[in-house]
Amino acid sequence: MVDIYTLNLGGLLALCGALFVAQSRSNASKKDNTKTKKKPQVKNESSKSQLPFLLIYALVMGADWLQGPFLYSLYHDEYHLSHTLISTLFTTGFCSGAVSGAFIGSLADKHGRKAACLFFCVAYSLSCLFTILPPPGSSPVLLFTARALGGLSTSLLFSVFESWMVADFYARGLDKNGRSLSSTFGTMSTLNSLVAIGSGVGSEWLVAAAGTRKAPFVASTVLLGVAFVGIWLSWDEYYGESNTTNTSSNKKTNQEQTKDKSTLVKILTNPKIFSLGLASTIFEGSMYLFVFFWTPALRSTQQSPETDLPYGVIFASFMASCLASSLAFNTVLSNAVTQSTLLLLILGTSAFCFFLSATPASEQAAFWVFCLFEAAVGVYWPCMGTLKGNLIDDGIRAQVYGMLRVPLNVFVVVSLLVTGEGAAAYGRVFMACGMMLAGASGVLWVVGL
């Protein structure tokens, strides 16, 4: 008999299919309306392609999504670690992300964003390997090392890849060939959701076939190896203002250092960028807390706690919700809803979801509220990416993106440290997230973008 979660996933995928068809027809109609307009011919069509980036992006996100649904379960159900130790492991990852976020972006701007992406592949591969090496009951040193590398890798994943793409977008003049940064972020969000759905189903199959929750981590390592080769062979290198490879000295003068610091401080104290940073800190921090707590929170609502949940299928359902909303992203913008207004709606909807999640009525009610929040996540990434891409100068983009992740990780670490155990703890965290999201939406409304 097909279980309820499989039916839920089927319904969400059907919705995604309907939205995809509707969007395709809308795009075809727009093309028909512009056929009579003559456009300048581009001699080299391949120069417009973002396929090399999108393929690598799919591989690295797939490597991240494959292991996501089973990390908590691996620690709790296979390694039999205590909730306190699991929380400490997750906290280690976020501390690592906070520390590395303070400098990883400037290093990428200086030594090259392609080089930083290559380093990400190596660091994340080691994180996966160290996670699966320890047998149950062994010293947790390797597990802590894995989480530290995982935090560093996450900072890289959500800063240097995006900054490389934006630099490449403008370096090849894609904005002059009818492309828009907004549509590129929309494509990335849609692709990310598709990869995540496949990863959720694939990880469930891998665990069932191998009989261990370690299997998705092995598969992630393989994907990261392929991504490393692809980046090495097909990507160009881009630097920020902090690059000094073309100077006769590897050391900056005091005047150059002062200029870099003053420029960064000026950008971070810009009210619009500050409000965006606050919104991203609270939203993404709440998202990471959700990633940590959705498994135990959903388990706490089960009428039969001894029944194991289909984590991969549930995760795929969350990602299908992301996909459905990301498919509607460009349609929403074309209907004259500004990105700043859209971000306000995202924050408000997310606050509502967390308020409801604090005291769920039933297991299925909790599941669908979680799906609604994931739908907000699906629209958030292209919306926030476009706003940051338009506001932040390319020269120090990776540096600023990295710095914005510092308060995000601090927020998550503090939340994990003050959280206890039991269903009441999940409720307190979700309620706090809801209140902070509502506050962030108020700040954005006052500042304006």
TrEMBL record:
InterPro entries: MFS_trans_sf, MOT2/MFSD5. Mediates high-affinity intracellular uptake of the rare oligo-element molybdenum. It holds the Pfam family MFS_5. One of its GO terms (molecular function) is molybdate ion transmembrane transporter activity. Keywords: Cell membrane, Ion transport, Membrane, Transmembrane, Transmembrane helix, Transport. The chain crosses the membrane at residues 6-28, 49-66, 86-108, 115-133, 148-170, 191-211, 217-235, 273-297, 309-329, 341-359, 365-387, 399-419, 425-447. The keyword Cytoplasm does not apply. GO terms for cellular component: plasma membrane. It comes from Apodospora peruviana. One of its GO terms (biological process) is monoatomic ion transport. This is Molybdate-anion transporter. It is a multi-pass membrane protein. SUPFAM superfamilies: MFS general substrate transporter (SSF103473). It is found in: Cell membrane.
